[in-house]
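Predict fold of Copper transporter; 366 aa.
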Amino acid sequence: MIDFRYHLVSTIAVFLALTVGLALGSTVLQGPLLEALESEADELRGRSADLRTEHEVSERVGEGADEMVDAAAEDMLRGRLRGVGVVGVAAPGADGEVLASLERRVEQAGGTVEGRVDLAEGFLEQSNATFVDELAVQVSPVAERLSGGPHTKAGTELGRVLAVPDEAESASGEGSAAGQGPDAVPEDRDTPVDDGEGESSDDAGPGGDDGGDPGNGYDAQAVLSAFAEADLLTVTGEPAGAADALVVVAPAGEGAGQGGEGQTVGTALEALTGALHASVGPTVLAGGPSSAEQGRVLAQAREGRSAYSTVDVAGRTVGDVVTVLALSAHAQGRGGSFGIGEGTEGFLPDPLPEALGTRANTEGER
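Predicted 3D structure, encoded as tokens:
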């Protein structure tokens, strides 16, 4: 009985001590604790306000830079793409307004917008890779010479369709139907294509074609129609046989490809763009800053040291002008990566590209 009383009293004493401790703690410590929390909250609110102010200032500076570049764009771009036929290619998820703005800048630089090709979502999806491969082989006049992954093959055929035919090669019956821009260096088109799809086409000519001549019966428009009827793309204008250079617009925002299926789509677009470049010549893959984030399409292209140029500031005035300057520089044999992301050589080409002559008086520079 004594033991029971002892334990009972001990238990009551413990609970009483806890109650007294909690009461004292809630009154004695409550003030300092609340003061510390309020101080930390005030500090966080201050930081948030500072960041908001910095962002607003940056936006105003950016808008001012856009206004200044817009005012000077005519002088900056005059003649940079004179005599160059340009075709725009919009990846799935690309902002149509960005491509439209780039087309206006191309015209401001003296180039001619020959048309555009909008790729459907299914074109780059892994689930359609076999179908894309089979279609490319089916429409190719030199199917036995195609190499690389599905999107490399498709890019080779689309490039063959879009490129201005090389008049000298066409007259002699030699070489590929894929022409090149007025100032593109021949080495630029012979760069091996690493398609990122498990195969390499470095044992072939441009786009893995090995330089085969499609022949007089080749119908470029029929090839475009085949891809369109397969719901892989849509065509605006008459781009067939008209491209000296290409502007490829990357997906915007979340569509820029990061992880999982997005990264797979980015790899497919990278392979397609590489093959287009190998067939046509000067090519720029342009997107906004998000497209250059780790794991996204421009970052992938830069990590793979792609032969085509990249720009990660397209979508605002200053970035669109940089994109056209990059295309002009590439047409003069100086490809590169420009913008603000990792792996860039600078914000814009330095030195700036020169104004181009007409196609007739630059033919000797090929």
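Confidence is low (pLDDT under 50) at residues 168-187, 189-193, 198-213, 358-366.
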